[in-house]
Amino acid sequence: MSELQRFPAEWEPQSAVLIAWPHEGTDWAERLAQVEQTYVALVAAVTRFQQALVCVAGPSLRERAARLLGSAGVDLARVRFFEVEYDDTWLRDSGPITLRDGAGFRLLDFHFTAWGGKFEAGLDDQLVGKLHAAGVFGAATHQRIDFALEGGGIETDGQGSLLSTWRCLHERHPDKSREEITAILEKALAQSRTLWLEHGYLEGDDTDAHIDTLARFAAPDAIVFQACDDPADGHYHELTAMAGEIAALRTRDGQPYRLFPLPWAKPILDDGRRLAASYANFLIINGAVLMPAYGDPADGAAAAVLAAAFPGREIVPVNCRPLIWQNGSLHCVTMQLPEGLLA
């Protein structure tokens, strides 16, 4: 790991959370009112603790978003809007991956292919560059990297350990070996080791098993992961195998990780299609953890697990049932920005 560059963990101090407001030109059009209520709840939760930086596709959308947020009692002094075009709102994957670089910052702008070319992503792939060119990130360095990678596909402990799934990265780069991909990730992200999981998937997931739907660092010695305790469920064998892999992982000093298995929600169907309702898709912010809630009896149990994994942080549920209709959840639509990054 470079002594000058470091990839901070999500639990480190933040300046803001970056999101993009849904609109009729995105895939949310059919259920826009529902998903906007989730975004209102999300921004309301974030702004209790820190700023929200909200991308909007134009002045009319800015006015609409501000009106909805204001009507919900959101402190608009903690909301900054930025007008920019985008294809969709999955900022975890199209937003910047930020390294601390000496006394400043480096914005890593990986090639965003919409999860292997599944959707149109031309505007989303330009988002980081446009935000940087507009001066949103002050004096931060912008580094374009010609390698397909999404922020949801990687987890760091802030101390040089990277966690990812081989399924996802191999799908993006079928022509590269594990050694080649590992070397590219560790060099670009200033990491000194990579922990690969071979198992884990969620039905209704477009991302080819993003790690942020499956397993997350809660501390350098702790991992929270999505478990499945129903042998009749189609996910049982895969997630049980993943749990075994995680139990076999070791910290940098050779100790087993402290493990926090999350409960399994009952199947949520939409016109017969199973939706990917993962509690692992939480967002850590200053003083809190925002938890995806699905209106399931397991919501309360998931909150209790997260409270144990993140002592001293408030657990704030956000209704994410509208989000999983488009195959993602709370972490997928957000990107945290480290403290000091914003101009």
TrEMBL record:
Keywords: Hydrolase. InterPro entries: Peptidyl-Arg-deiminase_porph (IPR007466). GO terms for molecular function: agmatine deiminase activity; protein-arginine deiminase activity. Transmembrane segments: none annotated. GO terms for biological process: putrescine biosynthetic process. This is Agmatine deiminase. It comes from Arenimonas malthae CC-JY-1.
